[in-house]
Amino acid sequence: MVFKLEKVVPWGRSFADYRKMFNLSDRDLELKILDCGGGPASFNAEMAKMGNRVISCDPLYNFEKTAIADRINDTYPSIIKGLKTNFDLFVWQEIQTPEDLGKLRLSAMKLFLADFEKGREQNRYLNQELPNLPFDSNQFDLALCSHLLFTYSEQFSYDFHLLSIREMCRVAKEVRIFPLVDNFTGTPSPHLAPLQQALKLDGYQATITTVDYEFQKGGNQMLVINKAN
Ligand SMILES: C[S@@+](CC[C@H](N)C(=O)[O-])C[C@H]1O[C@@H](n2cnc3c(N)ncnc32)[C@H](O)[C@@H]1O
Q: Residue 96 contacts by C-beta under 8 Å, 6 or more apart in sequence?
């Protein structure tokens, strides 16, 4: 499948967001981490500054910094408009308005853009995509996936989800996916329950865990997948 930049709506979260979404402890931050569908999030950039190492995979990284920056600027107004139209689907407490949210996301994406070229040289940003990853088995301690699987349940089939999760489980000892609800609707992904069953048959434990992060109403849970003992 050809990945087209004009189809991407680049939107990236920060280290602080990742920490809460995935319940990352101080010890977790020292693990070898893979971020699948890292997009323009600043998690990798901020972790690198702290001396921790994350590898992020995303077909977005095939494009040049200026093209990604242009795409962010082009799509930004429509995202703010979408948030205003769907205002009631979000929790407006810490962040009170769509404009405030926009500023936060833009500042994270600026950190990403400032780090992107250096990080690409250091092989921290790889143009790779699910469901096939070019890594050895158990190369990572932890694989994270934020706002890709389950979020786009309509666009990505059940089979794509299963293959992607199996691949993340192959390359990492533990997988965490957040959130578990569909984009905008806030309803649980229809893929979730059958995936939990399939993963159990594969010999994995897939546990739903509530986290201290909820911006999309109902989106305050992650799926943690480990090899069953
Ligand atoms: C909504 S963004 C989330 C970015 C980041 N994880 C965050 O939460 O801020 C979803 C990302 O998934 C990427 N993506 C789409 N298809 C993918 C695939 N097959 N494998 C990996 N990433 C993919 C998109 O390019 C986009 O950057």
A: none
